[in-house]
Amino acid sequence: MNIKTFAPALFALSTLGLAACGSSDPAADDAKTGWAGIAEKAQAEIREEMATKNLDIGQGIAGLPSASLSPQGDLVLDGKTITLTPAQRERLVDYRTQLAGIAEAGAEVGIQGAAIATVAMKEAAKAAVSGDSASIEARMKDQTDAIKVAAQTLCDRLPALLEAQRAAAELVPEFKPYANLDEKDILECNTDIDGATP
Question: Is the pLDDT confidence value at 27 over 70?
Fold first, then answer.
C-alpha cells in the first residue's frame, strides 16, 4: 500500500464501488446477502487481514527496499526484520491501527458506492422508459450526498494517521523513508470530495 496515493484514492473508492463484489444484484434490504451483508463480509476480511498479515508499506516507492509491518509491529525491510525497542514497536502498532481503521471504513464507503451504482443503472433504465429523469436525478443526488458524507469521514481520519506516522518516523529511523503521507494529501482528499459532482 503506497500511502502517498492513499488519500486521493479514498473518494474514488466510494464512487467506483468494489469490483470484487461480483455482478450479482443483492437486495438492498437483505442484511445477510445484500449490500449490507457484503459490506459486513468485506470489513471482516479486512479486520482478519490486518490482524494476521503483514501490511506492505513500501510498494511503488522507487529506490527503497520492500517494506512491511507485521500485526505485532515488526518492521521488515527487504525480508529482514529490524530490531526494535518496545517503544518503537508501540509507535508502529499505533500507526498500523490507524491504517486498519481507515481501510475498514473505506470498505464500507466502497460498498455504498457499489450499491448506489446498481440503483443508478436501474433508475437510468426507468428514466429512459418513463422520461421522468428529473425526479430520478433528485433521488440519486440524495444518495450520492450520503456517500460524500461517508467519504468525508475517511478524510477526517487522515490527521490522526499523519500524527501516528510522524511519531513512528521520529522514533524509528528505518521507517522514516516510508512515512510519506503529508498535509497536502489530506488537503487533496478533502478537495476531491468537495469538488466531486453527484
Answer: no
